[in-house]
């Protein structure tokens, strides 16, 4: 166990390893603080490679004590060399980190929830809860079911049916709130103050966020312990993208990188909820919250992002950028990834692909460099977004003559 405790990101005040998330001195967010010198001596490429193919193969850099008992099959998703998509976008080398097939609930959220539930267990909580835009709900419900915990899940009332049924199936206590995610989150902060529950993304947020790093650790390992020139990451609260930066820094400090990192980190949002990319594009220091998010990318619809400032700072510092896309572009992005690489991603993945295209077209991403797209969720969960947007199938009577007629028509169109 290499965790020293928690530390304020702003003033550096130190706290014990405990379910705290905000500095009582300056109100800054708390972050897990590790004994990096000790980790550096322990962690090696050979050691990592000898372990099971899941997110815990980087256990020294995750904040759990003792044996791993939660989410043991999470992570180690494919890094797909996306040559067809590369050709379509006009770039030389492109990869897709495909968390749309993460175990068990087909999104990157299984990584963060594994760490949070493991930590809830360590701290002795009896009930696990969350405020969610959809994928977190699925993941908390599933991982608490398998770990034997009672759970409460809070969502905005307008989510996709796949996200709702994909939560209820695990027999959690699901509560829909009439209001945006930001209202859900505010209510949950109040509930967390009254009930002694483990809210994975509130009082356990510093630990939860650490789970995100595993996506980047895996990507680096899958590239042969090398980092890409560019990575494009979808942003909701801005946590995942900040942990891309932290993961690269940690691997470098621990001597696990074959070359000096120079990755430019790019953030992606929907135009209908773009508080972070707007700040980057307008060169603003502060994040202006979006009051009424309106986009089909509901999983990214956080109007007041907790890590927005750190996310925009990271894009600026690494030479990256932020871009946002319309709902039409999002659907085009989903279709493009599916038709070129055979990967069906949800609306958030459509955001990532469409933003990557825009960044390449505008010259922010260099066509001769290596780029990784973080595809974070599965298309079967957001089918509504495609209703009326795809070619209608032909319906025929079961005879050969009818089929030949349809075939002729299909070939005519080509
Ligand atoms: C939650 C989520 C993200 C990123 O969320 P952050 O709050 O920025 O960490 C990205 N993609 C999908 C599909 C998500 O559900
Ligand atoms: Zn502080």
Keywords:
single chain, 414 residues, alpha/beta, Rossmann fold, 2 domains, 6-stranded mixed beta sheet, 15 helices, binds pyridoxal-5'-phosphate, binds zinc ion
User: Which sequence of SSEs, written as H and E, runs from N to C?
Assistant: EEEHHEHEHEHEHEHEHHEHEHHEHHEH
> Biggest sheet, strands in spatial order?
4-5-13-10-11-12
- Calculate the mean pLDDT score and round it: 97
Instruction: Give me the secondary-structure category.
Output: alpha/beta
CATH class of the largest domain: Alpha Beta
Strand content: 15-25%
Shape: globular
CATH domain fold name of the largest domain = Rossmann fold
Helix content percent band: 25-40%
Measured between the Cα atoms of the first and last residue, the distance is: 61 Å
Low-pLDDT sequence parts: none
- Distinct small molecules: pyridoxal-5'-phosphate, zinc ion
Number of domains: 2
Question: Number of helix segments?
Answer: 15
Largest sheet: 6 strands, mixed
The counted number of beta strands is: 13
Radius of gyration: 21 Å
Q: What is the level-2 CATH architecture name of the largest domain? A: 3-Layer(aba) Sandwich
Structure explained in plain terms:
The chain has helices at residues 36-42, 45-49, 83-89, 109-123, 135-147, 161-168, 181-194, 205-211, 213-222, 239-253, 275-281, 308-318, 327-341, 347-361, 400-413, and strands spanning 3-8, 14-15, 30-34, 79-81, 93-98, 127-131, 150-156, 173-177, 198-199, 230-234, 264-270, 322-325, 370-375. The chain is α/β, with parallel strands linked by helices. It has two domains: 79-105 and 213-386, 3-Layer(aba) Sandwich (Rossmann fold); 109-211, 3-Layer(aba) Sandwich (Rossmann fold). It starts with a strand and ends with a helix. The mean pLDDT is 97. The radius of gyration is 21 Å and the shape is globular. The protein has 15 helices and 13 strands. The protein has a six-stranded mixed sheet with strand order 4-5-13-10-11-12, with helices on both faces. It has a four-stranded parallel sheet with strand order 8-7-6-9, sandwiched between helices. The protein has a three-stranded antiparallel sheet with strand order 2-1-3. The longest helix is centred in the first third of the chain and has 15 residues, at 109-123. Zinc ion binds next to loops.
């Amino acid at each position: 166990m290499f965790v020293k405790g928690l530390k304020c990101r702003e003033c550096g005040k130190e706290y014990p390893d405990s379910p705290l998330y905000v500095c009582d001195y300056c109100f800054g967010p708390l972050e897990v603080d590790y004994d990096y010198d000790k980790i550096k001596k322990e962690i090696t490429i050979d050691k990592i490679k000898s372990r099971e193919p899941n997110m815990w193969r980087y256990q020294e850099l995750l904040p759990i004590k003792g044996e791993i008992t939660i989410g043991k099959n999470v992570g180690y998703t494919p890094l797909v060399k996306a040559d067809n998509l590369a050709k379509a976008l006009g770039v030389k080398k492109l990869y897709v980190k495909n968390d749309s097939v993460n175990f068990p609930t087909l999104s990157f959220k299984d990584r963060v929830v594994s760490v949070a539930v493991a930590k809830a267990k360590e701290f002795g909580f009896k009930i696990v809860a969350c405020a969610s835009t959809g994928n977190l709900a699925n993941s908390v419900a599933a991982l608490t079911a398998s770990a034997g915990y009672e759970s409460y899940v809070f969502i905005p009332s307008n989510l996709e049916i796949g996200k709702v049924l994909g939560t209820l199936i695990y027999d959690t206590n699901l509560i829909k709130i009439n209001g945006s995610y930001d209202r859900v989150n505010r209510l949950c902060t109040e509930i967390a103050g009254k009930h002694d529950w483990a809210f994975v993304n509130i009082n356990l947020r510093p630990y939860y966020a650490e789970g995100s790093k595993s996506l980047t650790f895996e990507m680096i390992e899958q590239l042969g312990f090398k980092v890409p020139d560019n990575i494009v990451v979808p942003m909701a609260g801005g946590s995942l993208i900040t942990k891309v930066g932290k993961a690269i820094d940690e691997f470098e400090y621990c001597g696990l990188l074959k070359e000096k990192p120079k990755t430019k980190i790019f953030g992606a949002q929907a135009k209908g909820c773009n508080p972070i990319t707007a700040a980057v594009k307008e060169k603003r220091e502060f994040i202006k919250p979006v009051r009424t998010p309106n986009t089909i990318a509901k999983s990214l619809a956080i109007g007041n992002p907790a890590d927005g400032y750190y996310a925009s700072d990271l894009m600026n510092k690494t030479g990256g950028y932020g871009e946002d896309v319309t709902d039409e572009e999002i659907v085009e992005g989903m279709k493009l990834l599916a038709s070129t690489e055979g990967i069906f991603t949800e609306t958030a993945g459509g955001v990532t692909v469409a933003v990557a295209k825009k960044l390449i077209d505008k010259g922010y991403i260099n066509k001769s460099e290596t780029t990784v797209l973080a595809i974070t969720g599965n298309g079967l969960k957001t089918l509504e977004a495609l209703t009326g947007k795809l070619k209608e199938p032909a319906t025929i009577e079961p005879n050969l003559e009818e089929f030949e007629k349809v075939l002729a028509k299909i070939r005519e169109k080509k």
